[in-house]
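Tutorial, part two.
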Amino acid sequence: MHKIERQALSAAPTAGQTMIFMIMALLVLAVVIVWISDVHTVLHLKARTQNAGDAAALAAARWQGITLNLIGDLNILQALALSRGDAAAADQIKNVQARLCFVGPLVGLLASQQAAKNNRAYVNPDYTANLAAHADLVQSYYAVDAIRFPEPYDNAWREYSGMLFTIAEQGLAAGPDNTWYYTDSINNHWLLSRNFYEAVASLDWCWFYWNDAAILQSYTDYQYWPDLPSAPPEPNTYNSEVFGLGLRPFTTVLPGGAGTVAHMNVLRSERGLRPDSPETISNEVAGITNTWYGYVWTSWSALAPANDFPILPLQVKPEYDYTGADTVIRVEAQPDSRMPTTFPALQPFLSRSSPGAAAHLTQSSAISGAVTWTAAGKAFGYLATDGGPVRPDAYVVVLPAFHDVRLIPVDTATGSNLGAYDLVWRRHIQDHLTTYEQSGQAGLDADCWYCQQLQTWEDPAFRQQGIDWLIDNSNACYRVRGGGGPGGGTRRGH
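Running the prediction step on this input gives:
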């Protein structure tokens, strides 16, 4: 009897320990299940955001190509009108071209929103409010400075702002990230480069090695920086700020002369322009002073100093080596996480690149826990000549040449470093940099991630750490470059 009682008493603590162990195991299992579910949710959201961004970039780029072809067709029809001595028709065509430089890109913006929403990207209220606020600003361009912001056609600013308002009313799901406002500077400055801040944050000393390693030693304090560049005195207001085409009207004789006339006649026949007219464009048109819409484009490799161009020049065929008419789309989505914090282990999944696009977890999105995808698209084409294909801008005037769109590395898109819809970045530029240049760290916002990097940069010990590292390891610095195929390119491109 006593033996049985002792066994019962000794079994009681064991049963209690087993129960505690089971409860702890169940809790751990519950956490693991929730974590796995959280990972699955975030990865699914990342894939959905990528699809939305890629589709939006391609949709906008497609409309840029369509618009450029329309403007090129109108150049040919204008030449035909001049050949027939119909100056009134030529003037009407110029007016249509001026409007297309705004209507085409904004139709592309509208198409990009539909593409993003079709891929389950939801309306971003901050993006929408940002577009509506800018539409309100556009209405004041003429009143603020009619000389600095000349209207490309009558009533342009009212019509332009009206189109922006209409798009904002439908809600923005994809931000046009390479929007180039007329008040944006076109000059380079390290304080206006997100790459600089990210290099400081990640201790990326190789970035300094490739850009300006001497600054680690020569920098003194905030007064070292040159003045922030001002906005251009005469912005190119012939283009929409959103997805601008990079065109300008030129009043001159026809560039390329008789050779351009001959090519216009070929294209007119191929595209069926005015098939009811048996006439051809006369060579006399080449000597008539007229206003033509032409390109202000450069070669892709010209982006190298500013963007660390991630495609080697020899990898780009000459007929495709041109900037202009490209789109950068930014899509953000907030995961509905069941966990109290974001796991650092998820960041590699969120920042993986895809062919022809650059995806990254930006600092503003890292702060908020949002998943961000940035993609760039571009319209491509060439002009066929007897000597082989040539760039679309080979004749200076716009001619119909575009027949395809592709995703491209974000670094190769014009204005990709502007981050117009990285709203945390834009607020830093607008609200913090001026006071920083005036009063140093006292002018920085402690809650601003970019301000925090400037505070780190001001520490001499931090810069000395970079100097010491480069002395021993600069031979390990090499440029990571990617093409439009697998691997893509990153925005930092170091």
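DSSP finds 16 helices and eight strands in the chain. In part three we will examine how such features are distributed along the chain.
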